[in-house]
What does this fold into?
Amino acid sequence: MNHAKTSDSDFPVQVFPAKMQRIILELNTTCGFPIDYTASAMIAAISVAIGNTHRIEVKRNWQESAIVYIAIVGRPGDCLSACRLRSKNSHPLTFVMRPLINADWKNNQEFQKKHCEYQQAVAMSRKERISAGLDEFPKEPKRLRYLVSDVTQEGLSAIHSHNPRGLCLWVDELSAWFKNFTRYNTGSEEQFWLSAFNGSTTMSDRKNCQNSIFIKRPFISVVGTIQKRLLTELANGERAANGLAQSSFALLRGH
It folds into this structure.
C-alpha cells in the first residue's frame, strides 16, 4: 500500500468511522502525515483498546482476536534525510498512541502511590496494621498498562499476567527487535512471537521459582517502524521458512 496525498492513497480509509476518517485526512493535509501510516497506527491502537474483551467466531470452535502485527515501512531513496524519514514514519504513530500513553502515565502515577503505601504497610508489624485499619496481609499492587517497549520475553509474560486484557509492544525500530530474538538463546524468542500472534496459550517458568506464569489467552499486538532496505535481510534464512515476517506482519510500504 502506497502513502500519498489524499486523492491518490490506496488505503481504504472508508472502513473507519466518519470521525476517524476526518482525523486521518486532516492530519494528511495539515501535517503531511501519510494516510496509510496514520490509519495503520489507528488499527494498532484500536487493537490494544479492544484486547481480550471481544473475539470473532469465524466458525464453530474457531475464534480470532484483534491481535495485529504492523510494520510501518519507510521509502528507499527518499530525498529527505534519514532523521526526517524516521520522523515521517514515527510521528503518526506517536500522535495516535498518545491517549494510551496518557492512560499509562496516569496508571503509573496511581501505582507509585499505592506501592508507597504498600511499602509503608509492610514495614509495620501485623499488630500495627490492624490498629491502623489496614489489611492484615498487604497485597503488592500491580501496575496497569497498555504499552510496553524494550522488554524481555520473561518480563513481558510477567507484565501480561498483571494485565490480562492485553498489551501492545511498540518498537520504534523493528529491525533491532528482530535482531534481539537470539540475544539469549537461539530461536526461542522468535517462536514465542509466532505463538503469541496466534493467541496460543503461553507458560513461562521463572528461574529459581516454583511458580509458573500461565496465560490462557495472550493478547500482544506489535507495531513499529522500519526502513525498507532492511526488510530483505530480516526476511532471509529461517524467517522465510517460519513465516514470521510474511504471514504475521502487515507491511505498510512507501513508494
Summary: The radius of gyration is 21 Å. The beta strands are 56-59, 62-64, 69-74, 147-148, 167-173, 202-205, 212-215, 220-227, 249-252. The longest strand covers residues 220-227.
